[in-house]
Automatic annotation (TrEMBL):
Cofactor(s) the record lists: Zn(2+)
Pfam family, one: ADH_N
InterPro entries linked to this entry: ADH-like_C, ADH-like_N, ADH_Zn_CS, CAD-like, ER, GroES-like_sf, NAD(P)-bd_dom_sf
Designated name of the protein: Enoyl reductase (ER) domain-containing protein
Keyword Zinc found: yes
UniProt keyword Oxidoreductase, yes or no: yes
Record keywords: Metal-binding, Oxidoreductase, Zinc
Similarity section: Belongs to the zinc-containing alcohol dehydrogenase family.
Domain of life: Eukaryota
Amino acid sequence: ENGDDDVTLKILYCGVCHSDLHTLRNDWGFSFYPVVPGHEISGVVTKVGKNVTKFNIGDRVGVGVLVGSCKTCECCEQDLENYCPRIIFTYNSYNPDGTKNYGGYSDMIVVDQRYVLRFPDNLPLDAGAPLLCAGITVYSPMKYYGMTEAGKHLGVAGLGGLGHVAVKIGKAFGLKVTVISSSPQKESEAINRLGADSFLVSNDPEKMKSAIGTMDYIIDTVSAVHPLLPLLSLLKVNGKLVTVGLPNKPLELPVFPLVMGRKLIGGSDVGGMKETQEMLDFCAKHNITADIELIRIEEINTAMERLAKSDVRYRFVIDVANSLSQ
Ligand code: NAP
Ligand code: ZN
């Protein structure tokens, strides 16, 4: 039911995030089955409650990783709903009344207006959908940790859904961007299609050595356990590494290079609603969208198998409306 503060969306597209795959596989140990994943949701408004002031029927909108929070804590008051201790996620989570949330691999969703985003006119609903998780997850730490100074050198570790958007956002901030990847075959696309300035293969010791101490910032989007030492070595003194990837086991922390180079390691989890809207507007202004492979829902299992093998260019998006009409 659409409550007084709620908006109902007809879902048109939904991106496929690696977090969906982690959840399906119970990688993190807190999957509550049955799960309907999907938190990069775009569509149009079909219904609004009587208190809804932000949206009208027919508006192009999106829903990302969260659909609720307490609205009164310090985090919520500072537009950091994403760090609210009572955050309600879009799927694999429960509402205060005990009902369960199901995500965007679906044809409709009902969401409190506070957690609904407006799509700028020139932002397409298909290639724009992944910005709702992948986009904000890399934009928010770049802003918070001060990684946006034009001319500085950003490394992007892992060229998948998050990584390829990080390259584009980094370029829009005027940074020099180097991709650090385990997939040598992504090099020419990274440079010619995504706009990266250079490309390092993480398991090529010679190339990695040549880049030691050259980066100001690194954003680490790798989804699996991996060594941090090679990445920390790429940083200059005072460099910052922000990890947003969520491997299923802890990473080892190499303390010596951290201490000796006054380096910083931080983390970041999506972004608040205000900042997510700011990111969508920023991407629309700079013509940033995801590079997508549009699939029908029948193809989701193959897509998940490919995602597990880092074989996606660079985000699968489900064409929900067309899947259901077939
Ligand atoms: P993705 O599209 O699968 O990209 C991850 C990339 O990591 C792969 O394309 C691959 O890039 C690299 N990689 C994968 N396995 C690797 C391995 N064993 N060794 C080295 N590199 C490897 O995933 P995504 O959707 O971008 O998500 C990335 C991670 O971020 C996931 O863990 C996800 O759960 C997490 N996440 C976090 C947040 C947050 O708020 N913090 C939000 C969304 C997602 P190369 O082929 O270039 O090596
Ligand atoms: Zn996600």
